[in-house]
């Protein structure tokens, strides 16, 4: 090897060691520009959910155009609501790979295009594909990344920020429903949908406002003891683990693929302090650690808070709490303690090792694959609490969309309510739902109340009210039902993240969120068409409301069962492989 090549190689190694003296962190500002992010996310929710949930008002206009059954037309509205939940893992992976801003902008353009193109549909099945299938994918690209961005910018004030964001759904319901009815009455269903497509294009502006949170480069603080360790050992790729030697002392055990350490280099490490390290059992073992675990061990000395690669520091889904929208105060002790750990640390199983320039493309692919595989890991269902939650949500989602998509048709067609006032039933539902989303958190913090209890009780009330809705006889009784159901359904969205996090722990919350979304998505696509099938057969919606309400009550029962099943211990931040 030539002298120049040797010199360049040595310089490269020196530069690498020097670079590893620094790390990168993304620190949530908990305010400032974060409130711009929160407002932008709220507006994303408003246009996305507002358009989807206005379908109950659009239904009669589309049904008159296509001359189809209630079951078929309700499938047109249910498919996008289910699809945008089903594609959650894929959208999360894309957001982690390309960034939330880019995904929201693409989603806005795609959703607007599909909504506009659906006006050319010759039949409801074509609209089901254009607006339902493809549109649902793009709606998901607006919704989920906006939630992630809020979690990236907020930590201590996250519950407040997400309360503002989720209020966008309620505001969308109370305003877009009457707007859809007015536009389609005055201008026709095609012009009405084109106007909604124009509204969806505003998501481009909201997406541009989603400025990525920039990483900060900080020096790694070394303790006096750590400075005795050779540079190769200090490399973040070579995690130091204590291993009991025959003479009773502890020496580091390395997991490394490309560093070869001379055992003579370890002579000064035999006296390495072990007070801050986890002492293994007599059985020798190697622990495969993730970014979080490495940080935890380093943090024991109070000197490691970030990751070595700046790109990984800015990937939002690598944070284990990226999808958690609840309040820490609503969690039990173990989950709250886990969440209160260093908020800048990345998620344990997801962070790839530091990368070089030649490995950036591979790292980008890993950023997508890691999140997709994490959010579709069905082994989470081995947790009995998570299994009960998933089953409960299947039943709940059978009836969840019923008042949103069928209440107006029920009031107008079955009860003969004046067509001029019937669109405002969804306004009542949306207004009370917005109030309920804000009130859910404070109610859950009342002494002797928990997020789970408030969620379960109000979910049962929503089911009972839906059963009784079949006995409504005029606008007033329908409005009372809309108000009660809108308020009672709010905690199912506002508090469910806390219930799930308490059940599986924060380390597995991302997995639980993804898997739960798959179950909810499938059930969402089945519930409304079944209600339409019942209406087609019996010529009335009252039986559909009775059955839908019963499904919600059964869902609440499965959530009540959580208190009867002993919780499973949360996994540690490290996985152990015995050798």
From TrEMBL:
Membrane topology: Multi-pass membrane protein
InterPro entries: MFS, MFS_dom, MFS_trans_sf, Proton-linked_MCT
Domain Major facilitator superfamily (MFS) profile residue range list: 385-579
Keyword annotations from UniProtKB, A to Z: Membrane, Transmembrane, Transmembrane helix
Coiled-coil region: none
Gene Ontology cellular-component annotations: membrane
Subcellular location(s) of the protein: Membrane
Major site of localization recorded for this protein: membrane
Tree of life domain: Eukaryota
GO molecular-function term, one example from the UniProt record: monocarboxylic acid transmembrane transporter activity
Pfam families, A to Z: MFS_1
Transmembrane segments: 33-56, 71-91, 103-122, 128-152, 159-177, 189-208, 386-410, 422-445, 457-473, 479-500, 512-531, 543-565
PANTHER family: GH22266P, MONOCARBOXYLATE TRANSPORTER
Name used for this protein in its record: Major facilitator superfamily (MFS) profile domain-containing protein
Species this protein is from: Adineta steineri
């Amino acid at each position: 090897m030539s002298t120049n090549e040797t010199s360049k190689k040595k310089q490269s190694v020196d530069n690498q060691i020097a670079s590893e003296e620094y790390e990168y962190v993304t620190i949530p500002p908990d305010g400032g520009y974060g409130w711009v992010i929160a407002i932008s996310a709220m507006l994303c929710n408003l246009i996305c959910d507002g358009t989807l949930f206005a379908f109950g008002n659009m239904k009669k206009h589309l049904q008159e155009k296509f001359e189809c059954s209630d079951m078929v037309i309700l499938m047109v509205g249910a498919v996008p609501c289910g699809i945008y939940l089903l594609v959650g893992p894929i959208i999360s992976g894309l957001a982690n790979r390309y960034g939330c801003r880019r995904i929201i902008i693409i989603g806005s353009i795609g959703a607007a295009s599909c909504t506009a193109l659906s006006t050319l549909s010759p039949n409801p099945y074509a609209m089901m594909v254009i607006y339902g299938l493809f549109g649902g994918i793009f709606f998901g690209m607006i919704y989920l990344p906006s939630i992630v961005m809020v979690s990236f910018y907020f930590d201590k004030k996250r519950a407040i920020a997400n309360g503002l964001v989720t209020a966008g759904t309620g505001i969308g319901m109370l305003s877009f429903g009457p707007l859809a009815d007015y536009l389609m009455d005055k201008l026709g269903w095609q012009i009405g949908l084109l106007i909604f497509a124009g509204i969806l294009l505003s998501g481009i502006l909201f997406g541009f406002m989603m400025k990525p949170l920039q990483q900060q480069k900080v020096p790694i603080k070394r303790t006096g003891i750590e400075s005795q360790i050779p540079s190769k050992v200090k490399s973040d790729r070579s995690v130091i683990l204590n291993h009991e030697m025959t003479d009773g002392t502890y020496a580091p055990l390395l997991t490394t693929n490309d560093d070869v350490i001379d055992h003579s280099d370890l002579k000064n490490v035999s006296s390495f302090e072990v007070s801050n390290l986890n002492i293994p059992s007599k059985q020798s073992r190697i622990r495969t650690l993730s970014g979080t675990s490495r940080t935890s061990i380093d943090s024991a000395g109070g000197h490691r808070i970030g990751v070595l690669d700046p790109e990984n520091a800015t990937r939002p889904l690598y944070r284990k709490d990226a999808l958690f929208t609840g309040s820490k105060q609503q969690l039990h002790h173990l989950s709250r303690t886990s969440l209160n750990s260093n908020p800048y640390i990345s998620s344990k199983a997801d962070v790839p090792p530091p990368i070089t320039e030649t490995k950036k493309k591979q790292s980008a692919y890993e950023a997508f694959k890691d999140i997709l595989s994490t959010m579709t890991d069905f082994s989470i269902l081995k947790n009995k609490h998570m299994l009960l939650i998933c089953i409960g949500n299947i039943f709940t989602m059978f009836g969840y969309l019923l008042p949103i998509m069928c209440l107006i048709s029920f009031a107008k067609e079955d009860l003969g309510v004046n067509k001029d006032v019937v669109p405002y039933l969804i306004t009542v539902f949306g207004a009370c739902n917005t109030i309920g989303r804000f009130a859910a958190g404070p109610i859950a913090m009342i002494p002797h109340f928990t997020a789970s209890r408030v969620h379960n009780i109000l979910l049962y009330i929503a089911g009972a009210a839906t059963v009784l809705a079949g006995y409504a006889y005029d606008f007033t009784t329908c409005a009372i039902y809309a108000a009660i159901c809108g308020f009672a359904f709010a905690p199912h969205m506002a508090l469910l993240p806390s219930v799930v996090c308490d059940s599986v722990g924060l380390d597995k919350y991302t997995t639980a969120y993804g898997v739960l979304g798959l179950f909810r998505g499938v059930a969402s696509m089945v519930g409304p068409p079944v209600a339409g099938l019942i209406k087609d057969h019996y010529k009335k919606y009252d039986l559909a409301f009775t059955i839908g309400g019963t499904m919600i009550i059964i869902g609440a029962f499965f959530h009540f069962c959580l208190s009867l099943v002993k919780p499973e211990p949360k996994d540690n931040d490290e996985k152990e492989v015995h050798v």
